[in-house]
Design brief:
- By secondary structure, the protein is mainly α.
- About 70% of the residues lie in helices and about 10% in strands.
- The protein has six helices and three strands.
- The chain has a three-stranded antiparallel beta sheet.
- A hairpin with a 6-residue loop joins strand 2 and strand 3.
Length: about 140
């Protein structure tokens, strides 16, 4: 493998990731929501059980402070509710019906954005892309850091 090709591949991967992030941020702002807030709602919509703020931070790989800030806004907007957990040291979280309605609307918006990103890809190209990403993920997970 040439160093030039490796550098170009890494550079493109970083650029595509940034562009996708910007596109999703733009779409989230159209509905008046920051991406972190939306990620929290998506997680709560998928996970039927209650989650603590610490669990959310761990699962989303963000800081507990970022979760706190995001939750404050979406709780004020009526998208999530807090309840005293089994352990009084933390609150459990759940998505409200209003939150589920927003998630359903935004899924359509983000799915359209993701579909546009892969426009003109054949199934074989997508399979190859998925295979490459799977290898990369496996290689990274083998590393100690």
């Amino acid at each position: 493998m040439s160093k030039e090709k490796l550098f170009r591949a890494i550079e493109m991967m970083i650029k595509i990731n940034k562009l996708h992030h910007e596109m999703i941020d733009y779409r989230a702002k159209e509905i008046g929501m920051h991406q972190t807030q939306h990620r929290i709602l998506m997680h709560l919509a998928r996970d039927a059980k209650f989650s603590s703020q610490k669990e959310l931070a761990d699962r989303l790989r963000i800081t507990p402070a970022a979760v706190t800030v995001a939750l404050k806004k979406i709780e004020q907007d009526g998208y999530v509710e807090r309840a005293l957990g089994h352990d009084a040291r933390y609150n459990e979280l759940r998505i409200t019906e209003k939150g589920r309605e927003l998630v359903n609307r935004t899924r359509e918006i983000f799915q359209a954005a993701d579909t546009a990103m892969f426009e003109n890809f054949s199934d074989e190209e997508l399979d190859s892309y998925i295979s490459c990403l799977s290898k990369m993920q496996s290689n990274i997970e083998k590393q100690t850091f």
